[in-house]
Each structure stands twice: as structure tokens, then as C-alpha cells.
Fold:
Amino acid sequence: MKRKPTLILPVLVATISAIVIGCGGGSSSHSSNPVTIQKANGYYNVTLDYANTTHREMGRQLALAINNAMPDYAKTVDEALAIQMAYLELAPIQPPLKFEDIVKRAKALYDNPAFYRDYKDEIEGMQTVFNSDVDKFGDGILSKNELLVFQLFPDVMRPYSCSASAAFGNASASGKTILGRNLDWVSDLDESAAKLHSLTAFKNGSKTVANFGILGQLAGVSIFNTSRVFGAILDADLGVPYPTTAELASRRSYIFDLRYALENFSTLNGVSNFMGDSNHLYAYNHLVFVADQTSAGALENQVNNPTGFTGNRRLRTDTSTLQPLPGDQTWGILGAFATVNDYRLVGNFFTDQRYNTSRWTSYKSKYAGVLTGQKVDVNTMKAIAGYPAGTGEMDQGAIFVSEPPKLISPNATYIPYSVPGATGNEEVPPYTTIQSIIVDMATMEFWAHFVPPKSSVTSGVYPPREATYQKIPNPIY
Structure:
């Protein structure tokens, strides 16, 4: 008789759990709860279990679970899209960009036969819940087209800056790779991001991966697999015009390709080779930061070349021969690696933008001790990834970026950083490091800083000038 309460309790807990985080939402022949969403300290911990469900049903159940966990989700994403679109509309591009142009971009990438069917099914499953046919910002509703654009955000709206670095081998205190990866967004999106931080585990047998990113997004942003390979996206703006809709018919989504690569390849080189395949053309120039237990590097994916360049889509490492640049822009630190938002390999176009060169100088300075035998541990990496350079400004060398929102002026003209037709008088959008992730590849332990909502900041400085790291449980180990 004494054992009966111990049987009742698990049943009660399971029942409560199903009510709180179960997906529900209608009958299905599939597992009723393939999705769990738990609110953690500043982020959502999401688990997608594919054992007994289809990709389409997973998408539907994810959307239902999100609405249960965050009732204002559609409103928050709608606002974020509106802010990013406002910046794009003010770029010196003729004719001015409209949201319908962004939808055309997204649909062109989505309709490419190379876009994997499983991912389409997940998006279409979500669209059965976010199913409005009306695209209207400010209505608090997430339409089918708005959801599609949101899924392809970096491919079609390009809000990212970012940087990353790593120490490995003799430069690492553990002998294994320790990395820091910063995700930088336009600062006006800080409040939206603060509500949407997530760590999503895609549990699918040998294809299991987990991704630090934004709640509900299905692509790879800062993603890792069970083989201890890590991959992350970085922007690389060369001022090359965005491909036409006709050209996009043969282009792929680099963020969904990154998810595929981490799901299907167990080595750093496998991921890099897939993303750098000459047959894989993408809409935007970008970099893919990759790391495993013994090394790190960045694939310089210069796919849209400025006049006079053929591109050199290769993996840059600590031993690569770089372009002849001034001393503070060289590297030469074996066992350490860093990347900002530019290309450094011979044959690629170097943009010489201050926001890149200043951060590169900061990284080189922070890793200089490796040359005299110093070792990088997790705390050292936190100091590197969390370096604010006093002002928090990229142009001043901040790695941890905290530039205040500008609250878009209707009379201003903004540039992503460089676009054709820019006069040099345009304003550059401010950026914030919305997520800073530290990984010890020896143990697969994680620490993360998530930009908080402004209401929680008591210092009066927003976004925060200092990173606040918390240890994050690894959901797939």
C-alpha cells in the first residue's frame, strides 16, 4: 500500500505536463506530443521528437505548442518583420523594396527543387496554424507568407552581422576546442529577440541536432550535432546586388542547407565541403563558422562576385595564407581562429570596412597571449566573446556589441553596410549581440548570454554593455 502514492505521482505529473506543454490541437494518427516547450531563464527550451510523427505534423504541432507557450508570438514576429522591413525600405535601392518583393524572394528559394522536402513539410505544417492570407504588418497576425519570410529571414532580409572565434590544440587549456560565437542583430529588434530566444533540439535518430536561435525558426543559425561538430552563419556583405527573381530559381537557402549539413555529416570537413559545393549557389555572400574538437575555421562562401573576382570558396583556418593586408589585419596565431563579416583568403574580395577591421584587431589582441604560451579556457573565452571595447560599438572594436536602437527616422536613409548606389552619407543600422554562445567541445558544455527585455535592465544602459553568461543544459548529450 505504501507504494501507491509513488505510482499516482508520475501519472499526475504526466497529466499536468500534457496540459502545460503538450501540443494537442485536434486528432491525429501520430504521436500526440512530439513537441515540448519549457520556459527557461531567458529562453525557450524546445524539443522536437520525430520518433512517431511526420515532418508536416511536426510543423503543425510546433505551431500549436508555440501558441500555447507564448500567446503573443504572432504579434511579436509580426512586429520584428515590420521593423526589419522598415530598414530595407529606406535602403538606397530603386525601386524601393516592398514586402511583396521579399515574399517573391522567399518563394523563389522555397520553390527550388533543391529545397528539402522534409523542411517544406515542416513549414507547411506550421502554415496550417499560421494560415492567414493577408500580409499586413501591425495586425498582430502571422500570415502564411510572413511565416515563410520569417523562416528564411537571413536569406531574404539579412539582419545579421556576427563574429566567432576559437582556441584549440596547444592554445586550449583542455586541449580541445573552446569557441565563442556572437549573433548580432539590428538593435531595434532587441525587444523582439528578448521574447524569442530558444534552444531547439531536433531529435531524429542519427540526424539529431540542436540549434540556438529564435523560437519557431527551423533552419540552422548556431547549430551542433551529436558528432561534436558546430556550425554557425555569418553575413558577408560585398555590395553586390541581390539576385533577381529569375536568378533565384537556381539558388538555395544557406540556412536550411546548414541544418541539413549538420544532420547528415559527422565531420567538420564534411559540413564545409557540402556548404562550399560549387553546385550550391546561394542568394547572399556569407561565411559558415565550423568547429570540432580539434580545429575551427570559416568557409568563405563568396558566391556572388564583384566585378573582377572569381571567388575562392574555401575553408579559412589558422594556417591559411591570407591577403596581404596591414599588420593589424594579419593573423599568424596558430591554435586560434577568428572571423568577422569579411573575406580574407586570396582571390576573395576584402571590403575594408571599419566595423570589420576594428573587431579583427580586437580579436588579434585578445589572442596575442597564445604566441607566448598562454592557454585559453572557458573564462578566457567569455572575456573574448564578451569584450565591449568600452563603448559597445563595432567601429571601436567591440566584439560584444551593444549599440542603442535608433528608432528609425522617416527622413533617414540606411544601408545594411554597403549597397550599390550608396553615397557614403547613409546611416548604418545599430547592432546588438543578441546571443553570445560559449562551447567547450571537450565536454559539450554551453554557456550563453541572451539579450534581455529592456524592462529587466536596472542599470539604465540598454542594450546591456556587459555579457551575462549562464550555463545551458545540453539537450542532445
Notes: Residues 153-190+233-472 form a domain with the Penicillin V Acylase; Chain A fold (CATH 3.60.60). Residues 4-21 form the longest helix (18 residues). The CA atoms of residues 289 and 298 lie 4 Å apart. The chain has a mean pLDDT of 91.
